[in-house]
Amino acid sequence: MVQLFYYETRGKCCRKVFNYEGYPTKVMLFPYEGWAQPALVSYWLLKTYWWSRSRCKIVEVSGVKKRTTKGKMADKGSGAMTITGKFKDTVSPDFKMTLTTNISNADFQLGYCVTGTLERGDKKRSDLQLTHFAMVKRKGY
After folding, report:
1. Burial grade of 44 (CB within 10 A; 0-12, 13-18, 19 or more)
2. Is the pTM of this model over 0.90?
3. Beta-carbon neighbour count of residue 100 at 10 Å?
4. Residue range 65-88, pLDDT digits in tens
5. High-pLDDT (> 90) share of the chain, %
6. Residue 109 phi, psi dihedral angles, 5° rounding
7. CA angle at residue 114 from 44 to 105, to 5 degrees?
8. CATH architecture of 2-137
9. Is residue 3's pLDDT more than 80?
10. Residue 34 dihedral angles phi and psi, to the nearest 5°
11. Record's superkingdom (predicted)?
12. How many other C-beta atoms are found inside a 10 Å radius of the C-beta of residue 63?
């Protein structure tokens, strides 16, 4: 039985879902088929700072490697949120993750409460391209 909270928050603010899920929030990343660099296990851990609503700490776990950076969260309204930032010492340092609570019924039945995309590249060269699909599972899945 799905909790009524998830039905009520479809299309609402992503922060509301993240607060209910608890921090750090685990965002699973599934590679886009056009992206050339495979990774066996890849996910992000998002943790907000107590002193800021717009800043977050991001820990990227890819296989056994871990990288940490700071990101900026921006609410775009109608259930959408973007997280932007930059990883140091990588080929494609900049990223932009777009998350939404407006999910399809199929994704909802699979146990997801938030879905989105991750774009990586270099902002200086205007070279952001889709690399991953991002999903957040509901509690109990």
Report:
1. buried
2. no
3. 19
4. 899 999 999 999 888 999 999 998
5. 35
6. -70, -25
7. 140
8. Beta Barrel (2.40)
9. no
10. -85, -5
11. Eukaryota
12. 9
Place of tokens 């690399």: 131
Are 85 and 95 in contact by the 8 Å Cβ rule? The answer is yes
* Amino acid at site 21: E
Contact 98, 75 (CB under 8 A): no
Q: pLDDT grade, residue 125 (50/70/90)? A: confident
Domain ranges within the chain, ordered by starting residue? 2-137
Is residue 15 helix, strand or coil? helix
Chain length of the chain: 141
Nearest to 31 by CA among 121, 122, 118: 118
Residues 44/131, Cβ–Cβ less than 8 Å: no
